[in-house]
Amino acid sequence: MKPFKVYAHPHGDYEAVESGWSWNACGFGPFWALSKKMWAVGVGVLAALVVVWGIAAASLGTEHGTLIINVGSVLSCVVFGAYGPHWQQAHLEARGFVCQDTVIAADGKDAVERYRKKCADPARLQAMEIGAPVV
Prior knowledge:
By secondary structure, this protein is of the alpha+beta class. The protein has 5 helices and 3 strands; from the N terminus they run ββαααβαα.
């Protein structure tokens, strides 16, 4: 179980973002970004890796080019794991989502479900809407 920030869109969509290090972002890098609808990040990193490999392979040979792309991939994984959740939060806010709460859950889907159950109590929902402290 880990903390997730739950974001809500005015049209009723919900998204949950991991707090801190993201193993999913670390392991899948640009493909994780694409799954989160961060098209520019995902396509940009994939294109950069291909271009860097092409330049390295053309100038140093395929063995050295492959070594460079492997090192770049590892660095990419570390950067995505560390900064991916921050990028996702900024992307959601740019799309009109607003952070509603932090929930402890097993995964993103569970975090949204827990948040919705928490909000199902009418008194709790009303207190949240007017900005009163929620216990």
